[in-house]
Design a protein that fits this description.
740 residues; mainly alpha; 6-stranded mixed β-sheet; disordered C terminus; Nose-resist-to-fluoxetine_N; transmembrane helix; Acyl_transf_3_dom; O-acyltransferase like protein-like
């Protein structure tokens, strides 16, 4: 009887099953379509259902237990139930004395809420053996499809906000703005069902019902069976490359330990090529720090705090946009609360890195070369930057296109499948740093847009850098200030013409004809450039003051700190204004979009200046503490790998999560810890060896070279590439490898 119950439950609301293709990505590129087609067998499906219904009630209970459940907390906005994924796929029963083998298939179904239908008015003709369960028709209508009007409106608002947050992190299906009408079409209850492997959902219904057309509709979202992820060339390439790197690490470490520990030879006499993959030496470089005069020590703390903010922000974002939440309607209350500003204002973190990038580009090059030398070595200027960014980025892209898809599994694993598909299709635009323009809505590594903008700003930087390194202060000042003013004027004109909303997320309905914020503003180089030029100005100021004592009165220092605090607080609090549901002031929105980010960058640059010249007090002590050194050196790998890790963890969920600050903080601790560990291994496998090899082949030198003196510009991010050197690039490059 229980087995009959599960199938009548399904049949009551599924009359016409339509194949559903997710427009976000081509699912057949990551899940094997042939395996699904080959297992379908209508006659075998009927045969297995008859056997279960008449001869194996316990097996029917297994299908019931693993499949259909009405979502809990519908009035709190939860429209999902994920069933029991692993239990369903684990069903396997070989019928004695027959060739029949019964296995489970997990399917997700969608039931649109906006349906003009009355199940009570329909006459479902149930086959005689199920006639006693006809009462479920009326129960289904009253209990499932009836959502009160307040909840219904809140659900529409939630979908609108959720789509904006998804677009912010690059996981939306298209670049179109979603309005209330499109939100209504997405309102649907999604439930898991477990059916015999040879069956389609329609076959399962035909086996127990005499169906007739009705207005009630449901879509089959997708189905999953074991071993449905085919091996492709990228998987074998990834296995081959990382196996080869592992062998090199073993051999290099053995050589290094033999040279330094067993033979007790001077580490400086070791062959740098043979030693480049050594876990022993690379770990020492990572954890060893030698103070150097002139270093901007506070940058490690700023970078570490910014990265922590990035990771916790992405943790919250993925909780807020999770497909399966027990209480999605509580998200609106959280977002419009003043106390959520530390999360909702998080996107401004990236402007910290843009400012650091411009600052260090000037600080590390001014006074070290001439304009003529810059022009002669421009190809190396670009090549070095590209090669320093490429290895870790390529490793992350390759893993996302291959092995990450096999790292785990779950009923919502399609989220990982979507990212895998994007990397298999658009890997090249990511490696060429043009994904923010070519495919902004379908990025491989959604957070990699920052690298694209930063690299594009780096490409144009010699136009300014040439005049800065020429040695003439007046020319340098005119050039840098002109660049900042040009970016501010261009950004202001652009924002007032386009009329963007005031932030990446708003609770008010999207205006008709309003351009897409993400594609045309958030990942656009022009409106994101002012913080970079603000950083350039302060980089030049720090260069001019290098080695000099800057004297300011207490009144000046207090006033400047007060201004910095007010400006940074104002930049953060503007998010609270635009997040209110009744907010509607396009002029203020345009001003916010034009000046909020450079104001934030200005505040960050003042902190760096004050800490460098002895006016930071306890703030400088915190930011300059040695404990931030390791995080600073791992920042690039952490940045690239933390977001795929967060997606993997969330996609492994087997039941809806309950959103709360406490749960999100606990999840952040998990995300952060795994990200640090992953960054450490990636640094040892890829980044550290690449740094040594690039310096060897681009910078010249033999297999054995003399240790080079430590340069001040490197010490900000730790040791240099000498025997006590930094495993990463010069510090301005490390900053450019850190993102939102």
């Amino acid at each position: 009887m229980k087995f009959k119950l599960v199938f009548i439950f399904i049949s009551v609301f599924i009359i016409n099953v339509n194949g559903y293709i997710d427009l976000v990505y081509n699912r057949t590129n990551v899940f094997d379509p042939k395996i699904y087609e080959d297992i379908l067998d209508r006659e075998e499906c009927f045969k297995q259902i008859r056997y279960i219904a008449t001869r194996n009630a316990f097996l029917g209970v297994q299908f019931l237990d693993a499949g259909f459940r009405i979502p809990r907390s519908i009035q709190k906005g939860n429209l999902f139930d994920l069933g029991s994924y692993y239990e369903c796929l684990g069903i396997h029963n070989d019928v004695q004395n027959t060739s029949m083998s019964i296995e489970g298939k997990f399917c997700m179904t969608k039931i649109p809420l906006q349906q003009d239908t009355d199940v009570n008015a329909t006459s479902l003709r149930v086959r005689p053996e199920f006639s006693e369960l006809s009462w479920l028709v009326s129960w289904f209508n009253s209990q499932l499809l009836n959502v009160d009007s307040t909840t219904y409106e809140d659900l529409i608002s939630h979908i609108r906000v959720k789509s904006q947050i998804q677009k912010l992190v690059g996981i939306t299906p298209d670049n179109m703005q979603r309005n209330d009408q499109t939100a209504i079409t997405e309102l649907s209850i999604q439930m898991a069902v477990c059916i015999p492997k040879p069956c389609s959902l329609q076959n399962a219904l035909d086996a127990i019902l005499d169906l007739r057309p009705t207005d009630l509709q449901i879509e089959e979202a997708y189905c999953r069976i074991p071993n449905d992820r085919p091996w492709i060339a990228a998987d074998y390439v990834a296995l081959g490359i990382f196996t080869f790197l592992g062998i090199l690490m073993v051999l290099s470490t053995a050589y290094d330990i033999r040279h330094q520990i067993f033979l007790k030879k001077d580490p400086k006499t070791a062959n740098k090529i043979y030693q480049s993959f050594s876990v022993y030496t690379n770990t020492l470089r990572l954890v060893t720090y030698k103070p150097v005069a002139g270093a901007l020590e506070c940058l490690d703390g700023i970078r570490a705090f910014a990265m922590i903010w990035v990771i916790i922000g992405h943790t919250y974002v993925n909780q807020l946009t999770a497909a399966t939440l027990h209480n999605p309607l509580d998200i609106k209350t959280f977002i419009e609360s003043f106390w959520s500003l530390w999360i909702t204002a998080g996107p401004i973190t990236v402007d910290t890195f843009f400012a650091l990038s411009g600052l260090l580009l000037i600080y590390s090059t001014a006074g070290k070369m001439t304009g003529l030398k810059l022009v002669k070595n421009l190809h190396l200027f670009y090549l070095n930057r590209y090669l320093r960014l490429f290895p870790v980025l390529a490793a992350c892209v390759l893993l996302q296109a291959s092995l990450f898809h096999r790292a785990s599994d779950g009923p919502v694993w399609d989220e990982v499948g979507r990212q895998t598909h994007h990397c298999r299709k658009y890997w090249w635009s990511t490696l060429l740093f043009m994904q923010n323009y070519y495919n902004p809505g379908y990025m491989c590594l959604p957070h990699s847009w920052y690298l694209a903008i930063d690299f594009q700003l780096f490409l144009i930087s010699p136009l300014i850098l040439f005049w800065v390194v020429s040695g003439k202060k007046k020319t340098a000042w005119i050039t840098i200030i002109s660049a900042l003013l040009a970016s501010l004027v261009g950004t202001t004109i652009y924002n007032f013409i386009m009329g963007f909303k005031g932030g990446p997320v708003t609770l008010s309905p999207v205006k008709e004809g309003q351009p897409d914020y993400f594609s045309y503003y958030y990942v656009n180089t022009l409106p994101r450039s002012p913080p970079f030029f603000v950083g350039m100005i302060f980089g030049y100021i720090l260069h001019l003051c290098r080695g000099k004592k800057v004297v300011m009165s207490k009144v000046q220092v207090i006033l400047l700190w007060f201004i910095a605090i007010i400006l940074s607080s104002a930049a953060l609090c503007t998010n609270y204004l635009v997040l209110q549901e009744d907010w509607d002031n396009q002029t203020v929105d345009d001003l916010i979009n034009s000046y909020m980010r450079p104001i934030w960058a200005l505040s960050i640059c003042w902190i760096i200046f004050a800490c460098t010249h002895g006016y930071g007090g306890p703030i400088n002590w915190i930011l300059s503490h040695p404990m931030w050194k390791i995080l600073g050196r791992l920042s690039y790998a952490m940045y690239l790998f933390h977001y795929p890790i967060i997606i993997l963890i969330n996609a492994s969920s087997i039941s809806p999560m309950y959103f709360s600050n406490e749960f999100s903080i606990r999840r952040f601790m998990t995300d952060f810890t795994i990200s640090v560990l992953a960054a450490y291994f990636v640094t040892l496998f890829v980044d550290a060896p690449s740094s040594v090899l690039i310096k060897h082949f681009i910078g010249g030198g033999g297999g054995k070279r003399r240790p080079e003196p430590v340069k001040p510009l490197n010490s900000t991010n730790g040791p240099t590439s000498s025997s006590k050197g930094n495993v990463e690039a010069p510090e301005e490059e490390v900053v450019n490898k850190t993102s939102l």
